[in-house]
Every structure is written in structure tokens, then in C-alpha cells.
Amino acid sequence: MGEIALTGVMAALGDPIRVGLVRVLADGRERGWGELQAPVAKSTLSHHLRVLRDAGLTRTRQEGTRCFVILRRQELQARFPGLLQAVLAAAEDEDVGHQVSVKDAAQPA
Amino acid sequence: MGEIALTGVMAALGDPIRVGLVRVLADGRERGWGELQAPVAKSTLSHHLRVLRDAGLTRTRQEGTRCFVILRRQELQARFPGLLQAVLAAAEDEDVGHQVSVKDAAQPA
DNA sequence: TAGCTTGTTCGATGTTTCACGAACATCGAA
DNA sequence: TTCGATGTTCGTGAAACATCGAACAAGCTA
Fold it and tell me: pLDDT tens-digit profile of B19-43?
């Protein structure tokens, strides 16, 4: 299940919203669906989150009626050394996915 | 014109054939269209080559009726440090784009 | 000039992706 | 049990994508 295919990952990262999602999750913290703020309908957000999960970029945990996502940093790093950093750096630089953010929730500053 | 956008690059690399093309070009050598061997019609190959060019991954040079492609390694490295290596390494590992190759042509060995 | 080679462009087609709203399933709370 | 919150799934439509074959344009070559 640790299947993470290159083209799948690349394709998943080919969409600004998903890159934004990855950026938001880049701090390694687990986030609840509800915290994720993106300019799309919830069904669409669900879709993007599913694409990320299917591509192996994230992992999902369900707790009661709520879901949580987390970036699979370690696995990613193991399989594609340096890729995540490169993507994140470039995304910062171009401000790709800036439209995605986290709702203030236990934001420690 | 040096515009190389992250999502464009990622999307371009989301197709096995194009990854194969990049692998073949990875040695930094310039190649003629005709040398490129891929299991698609020539119009399709033309299309993929255009996508790569538009994404900023390659550069094309025309000489008479013949065309040559070359990977923009340096620019890529400058804009996305480490990304190309990561992708190439993963592609080798998974053997993505193995269906693409170079016809023996002035192959010095 | 005629013909061959090389690559591009042009539909046509089928698949996939992105997006939305609506309906549905679940869980916890009142 | 009834309600509200949270996600998922479904049906749909528009746009993008991958492919192909055919037609076309441009250079060499005979």
C-alpha cells in the first residue's frame, strides 16, 4: 500500500489547489478537513484530497465523523529524495496554491 | 521566455512517455526528432515534445527541415534545485518511460 | 521540376479531470 | 428520535488530454 508512483505524484502536483494543500500540510501537522480552506465546493475539495491520497502523498485517518489528513513526508523523502523540498521551495517562490489556507484553529503562531 | 512554472512542469512530467523522453535526454546531449523512438504516432510524439517545450523543460532548435531537442538542465536546476535529479532517480527506479529510447544514430559508444 | 523526408497542423474520438449541487450516510448532541 | 455537522458519492457538464490518420508546408536531393 506504500505504492507511490512517480507519474501519479507528478500528476497530483500538477494542480495549484493540490499544491496549496500540500503546502498547508508541509509543517507535518495533521489537519482536519474542516480546517482546510480552499475556494472550491466541499465535494471538489473531497475530490482533490482523494487524488492526493490515491497518489500516496497523504494519509487519511477517520475519527468518528471527522477526517484528518497528514502529509507522508518520510515515505515521500524515502522514495523521492529531495523532491518534496524542491516542490515546496518552488511553490513558495511562485506562491502557487496561495488560495489554500488553514482556518484559524489552534494556531500557535 | 525562461518562464518555467511549477505546475506546468509537474503536469508535463505526469505522463510516462514524456518522462521517458526526459530520461533519454538526461545525458545532456542534443537529439534529433528522428532518433527518438516511442510507441506513438509521429503527430503524437510531436505533441508531447511540444508540451515539454511549452512547460520549459526542453529547448528546440531547427536546422533545415530537421529539429533537435535538448534538456534545459541548467535552467531547471536553477529554478528547481534537486527536482530533476529526484525525478530521474525515481524514473530509473520504477523504469518509467522505458518504452522510449534512442535509435542508434551516430552513437559513438 | 518531381519526389522524398521531416515535422506541424487539423479534425475526430474517446478518456480523464475538475467542478458543482444534491442526495446519502454517520456520528454526536439535544 | 430528531437535528446539525461532516464527509462521501452520484449525476452531470465543461474543459483538457492523448491518440490517431490525413493533409499540409518546407527543405533537401535526384
Answer: 999 999 999 999 999 999 999 999 9
